[in-house]
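Task: sequence in, structure out. Protein: Alpha-galactosidase.
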Amino acid sequence: MCSVVSLLGLVVLIGPAAEALDNGLALKPTMGWLHWERFMCNIDCDKDPDNCISERLYMQMADVMVKEGWKEAGYEYVCVDDCWPSHQRDAQGRLLADPKRFPGGIKKLADYVHSKGLKLGIYADVGKNTCAGYPGSLGYYETDAQTFADWHVDLLKFDGCYMDWTMLGEGYINMSKALNKTGRPILYSCEWPLYEWPIRKPNYTAIRETCNHWRNFNDVYDSWSSVKSILDWTAAHQDIIVPSAAPGGWNDPDMLVIGNFGLSHDQQESQMALWAVMAAPLLMSNDLRDICPRSKELLQNRRIIDISQDPLGRQGYHTAKVDSFEVWERPLSKNRLAIAVLNKQEIGGPRGFVVRAVPGWRICNPQCNVTQILPKYKEMGVQTPHSKMVISVNPSGTALLTVTPISSDSKRMHELYWQDTSVKHKHAGIL
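Result:
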């Protein structure tokens, strides 16, 4: 059985997105490392000094990011999540780092990270407390923004715990203004829609004007069921969320858990491929000091990163279901197309997928050149609309392709594809 999404909703991608936050940042999806999923709120440095939330952990990650090619591959932010502060502010109302775990303070850590040519991210909360119970920023937005600027922080992840939902938008907007007021460019990562969706549909025009990227759905766990739930939610809400993504502001499906414990290698490839097609921030949460070579190679795959960082800056869509395969497509610069084919069947062995079943295959009229990036790099050569090319996809794995039209009017074919207005998504039998 084949059900295909029409592309009426995709026409919005041809026009400009809503006005982006005016700080000149996140012109491409953010790349870096974030501690939360792997290290959580481990503050016991006496029993577990190598894995506790301390300045040592971030300095070691910064060292590895430079030494092991992560910085060269594009990963530039080293991000601190919850559980870094003291439980009390100082006499002037300013946040303080825990003195035992961060004896040099955040400014020293920022200086160290900057000395490596990297950038530092910090965590705070729009409400009265962080999710782990540390001091929140409610009532201290300008104070905290200036503190982060004084510390030379480069990114703020701003959570939404312990906050009346009716005040969420005001709080996120006020912190955005406070950050810009400091004069320091600080990338602003919000969780505004995540906390508003249970009550009402968020205003993505306002969110894009306020934040550089924004979480929409549940925290990612180190499991395939978690990754699948994020993909399913994104597909079900894509008509609402995808039009807001463009240079300066991105939908954030949460961290990459590649290199941890819960995903098979095929599932790791699926997360990497689909996060790239979704134009998602690539924020790893893993232990870069001890990561298997195969996971490292995947995370540093330049061809996948090139799709993620494509300068056209359009997020991809879930466009078809075909016999327990899902097709996701992303328009790329130079009239190209990225195609991810996910095998949702989790029994048996590899299955073949006929690529001409992809809705965007029409851009191969009269010819196109196809490159397979995952599961293995392979030049598939020149193809036509009638090619019988079949790709093999493992259970829960993903094949990732790029397609380049060969035509004197390839740009026109590309635009016609993304402007197809046959039927709305909701009538296509997918959403």
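Residues 1-16, 421-431 have pLDDT under 50 and may be disordered.
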